[in-house]
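Spend some time on the protein that follows and explain the fold to me:
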Amino acid sequence: MSLISIKHLFGLQNTPKNDIEKILQTAFKFREVLDRPIKKVPSLKGKNVLSLFFENSTRTKMSFDLAAKRLSADVTSFSKGTSSLNKGESFKDTVQNIHSMKIDCIIIRHSSPGSCINLTNYVDASIINGGDGFHEHPTQALLDIMSLKEKFKSIKNLKVGIIGDILHSRVARSNIYGLTKLGAKVRVCGPSNLIPARIESLGVEVSHDIKDTVKWADALNVLRIQRERMGIGIIPSTREYRSLFGITSSLINKYNKDITILHPGPINRGVEVSSCVADGPNSIILNQVLNGVAVRMSVLYLLLGGGE
């Protein structure tokens, strides 16, 4: 039985603020577990977790697998490339056959928005969205927020700039929903054709001036330019993008401020952010990776009623 009000984590748009806060509080407790010599607890012993990834992933999949194992759950990974889907089997039949093996939780990544919700039509396991198209990526946003909370102690009134390819970013959407619910002030900044129309309705400011945004912000979440999701010509060249919106040491040093840098990865070094910034004292990128395991432990634990 879930220890929070939701059975599934589809996104942060419809996740209550109280549940977000409970996930973060629990994640900090699991972060302490990860700092111990023995990093494993028996909270989900006997539970079966399935990683159902239809898109490539390194960080998210490894992080979820490790989180489940740290909680002593049994983990099964699904590979589309070696599955019966290549023989013509339907998505429904594949999922129902897997679920008949008594799976308690499914983590799904899929290119189609809403795929995680569609999955509930075929199974009664808890579903966690590992990224669905351009829609949401809730656990990435939760680990970003946890990393900010670790640095600043409070999210309320924190000024967070989300920089770059907002249009194609499920990370940006989940961050916007989560940060605004917790009282942060959010500004998106990027080329006009990479900012969705009417995004102000989500409670954010819009800017196309990177210098003003750096001057304004306490923290910047710098997004990857997703060339694989773009049509030809959306940005003229990576060189031009870098000159207009790239986060560099000279840009940060110009304002003589301790601005915090996040990035969801993978990084296009020298495009959206320079190596000096990504590896520098302002960066908390590696903290995000560790906090990702703690957040995913928290989500699994709370959805699967760990300890009960």
